[in-house]
Each structure stands twice: as C-alpha cells, then as structure tokens.
Amino acid sequence: MKKMTEAQLAELETDLNAIRDEVLADLGDRDARYIRRMVRLHRSLEAGGRLMMPFGFIPPVFVAATVTLGVAKILENMEIGHNVMHGQYDWMNDPSLHSQTYEWDTVCTSDSWRRTHNYEHHTYTNIIGKDRDYGYAVLRLTDEEPWKPWHALQFINYILLSVFFQWGVGLHELETEKLRSREISWREKLPFLKEFARKGGRQAFKDYVFFPLLTFPVAPIVLAGNVGANLIRNLWSSTVIFCGHFTQDAETFTEEECEGESKGHWYLRQLTGSSNFTGGRWLHILSGHLSYQVEHHAFPDLPAHRYPEISGKVQAVCQKHGIHYNTGRFAKQYGTVLKRILRHSLPEKVTGMARAA
Question: Given this model, what pLDDT does residue 356 score?
C-alpha cells in the first residue's frame, strides 16, 4: 500500500468526502425514477421469460426465454438487490426499496448478505484474515496465504464456484474454514443453516418445482430453461465480482497495517484494493455498476448509477495523491483474474523460480 502521512490521509479524506457530499446534496427525483425504471424493466423481463418458456420446444424460443429470464435475474441481483441493500435508496422511504426490508431473488438471505458483505467485506476489504470474501475460503490469491496441496486444484474450484455461485454466496456465512479448524461448532451455525434452508428451499421450489409443474406437459423444458437462467446469472455475477476484486493490480493488506486506521486510510485501502473495467452503458447496468468497483468501495451508499458521473473526479483525486486508479478493458481485467488464480495455485517457490528465470 502507498505510504502516506496522517496529514496526506486527512487531505484524501476531505477530497473524497467532498465528492460524496456533492452527490448526497443532489439526490432526488432523478434517482427515484431510475431505480423504479429498473424494477419495472426487471419485472417485464421476468414475465416475458416465464411466458415464453412453455414454448421452449421451439429451439429459438427456448434460447430467447432462457436468456431473457437470465438477464432479469442479473438485473434484479446486481443493479437492484445489491444496491438497494447497501442503503442507496433508503432516503426514498419506500419499504419495497429499503435496505432492511428488501429480499432478493437468490438463495442468500438478505440478512446474511448484510452481515457478510455490507459489514464484513466493506469494513475489512482485502485484509487477509479478516475479509473472507477474498477468495471465498476456496481460492488462494496471495502469497500471504500459505500454499497447501489442494490449492493445485483451485482452478477447478473456481469453475465450480462460478457455476454454483448463488449457493456459494448463500453458504458463505457458514465459515467452513473455521468449522474445519474447530474454532466454531456446527451447533453455533444451526440458526444460520435453518435460515439458509428456508430461503434456499423456497428458491429451489420456485424455479425447479413450481414453474415446471405449472406447465406440466412441458415441465422438462421449463426446468431446463430455469436451470439455464440461473447458470447465466451465476456465471455473469461471479465474473463481475472477481473482476472488481481479484485483478493483478488489486492490492491486499495485513491486519497489522490496518490497525486503528483513520477514515483516510480506509479510503486509501478501498482505492488500491479495487478494480474497474470499461464498457458500454448496458455493461455497466448489468454489472450493477460494479464495473466502477473503485467508486463503489469508496461510496457504497451512493446510488450506483451515479458512479460514471463521479469517476472522473475520483480519478483526479487519485492523480493528485499519486494513487494508482485500477481500470482497463473488461477482457483484460478478467484475463488478469484468471492469471492470478492459476499463479497462486502453485507454491510460492515455484512461481518465484519462474519469475527469476
């Protein structure tokens, strides 16, 4: 991490607070119209996908229905659910768009997400040993984590995590690494498991039982389409999230260097531990504007559709303070994620020798 004096960190905090305050002072009808338009679009896409699915015995219709439903799930999870649960629209006082009452279309409960993501991840971003989102307890992505033989297979784990991403996120609070080390017991996790079973069961019943049975003569087609839609959502969501956190230039931190950190130091950690990627308007919308992960980590409670407007100002602040602003083409950033996963699947002594050669 870049070394800055307390005075420099205080100035960084002032500069970024000014950007945040400017957006907060301007919140209003434009933001409310935007999120409500996204909700209407999601509902239209979901209804369209569901209505087309029974006619999926016609191959082009099956593809169209599956993709439409998959996009609806992406939009609901990324641009609506994730951002609403960050409190970005709490000021509207709309119970259907409030962070504490919203429940999204995925197996992870909103309460679990708020605990593991909103608090744990955004407080301890990329601090090894504190931020369990860094690698999701199945991927080794830094030399700070000791290599173990099972890491050699982590690219397979990466593929499995991506395919079943909603289930991996839903079970994240289980803290399997602490269960393995016996820091915690299964009994302590029973309340969470019951909560997860209820939500996961409802989601599985809806997509894999209710809607297929509703169209019984073509139930296998509807079932296959729903599986495909969830797969589309899982692969896209995991890819976007990995590109925001695990690129080559995204830094990690030790617990020691973050002890008693100031708000300015927290800002510095968010700026240097995050990654953006570039693209068109709909790429940003379907990523939940997590294509602007740097801005999101600095300002998680600002409406995400505002990030493109403030990215230039954040870049200017980074340039002023000599901080690297990590951005690049989507394909390039994703490529560095894959390289990082593969590199850290090998022991440090092997990768070190390769670099030396």
Answer: 47
Both tokens of residue 16?
Answer: 């970024």
Q: Is 181 helix (H, G, I), strand (E, B) or coil?
A: coil
Q: How far apart are CA 96 and CA 90, in angstroms?
A: 10
The total of other beta-carbon atoms located within 10 Å of residue 297's CB is 24
Residues 6+ apart with CB under 8 A from 305: 31, 34, 35, 285, 289
Helix ranges (H only) for the chain are 6-26, 29-52, 59-74, 83-84, 110-113, 122-123, 154-163, 165-170, 176-180, 190-205, 211-214, 219-245, 263-272, 281-286, 293-298, 307-321, 330-343, 348-356
The CA distance from 128 to 138, in Å, is: 14
Using one digit for the tens of pLDDT, what is the confidence trace for 317-337?
999 999 999 999 999 999 999
* 204-217 pLDDT per residue, tens: 999 999 999 999 99
Tokens 């397979």 label which residue? Answer: 156
Cβ-based neighbour number of residue 168 at 10 Å: 20
Q: CB neighbours of 264 closer than 8 A, spacing ≥ 6?
A: 4, 6, 8, 9, 10, 11, 12, 13
Q: Which residues contact 169 (CB under 8 A, 6 or more apart)?
A: 106, 107, 108, 113
163 and 231 Cβ atoms separated by less than 8 Å:
yes
User: Dmax over Cα atoms in the chain, in whole Å?
Assistant: 70
List all residues 6 or more positions away from 19 whose beta carbon is below 8 Å from its beta carbon. 299, 310, 313, 314, 317
Please state, in angstroms and rounded to a whole number, the distance separating the CA atoms of residues 159 and 339: 14
Angle at 93 between CA 13 and CA 195, to 5 degrees: 90
Q: Which amino acid is at 151?
A: H
pLDDT digit string, tens, across residues 115-134? 999 999 999 999 998 998 99
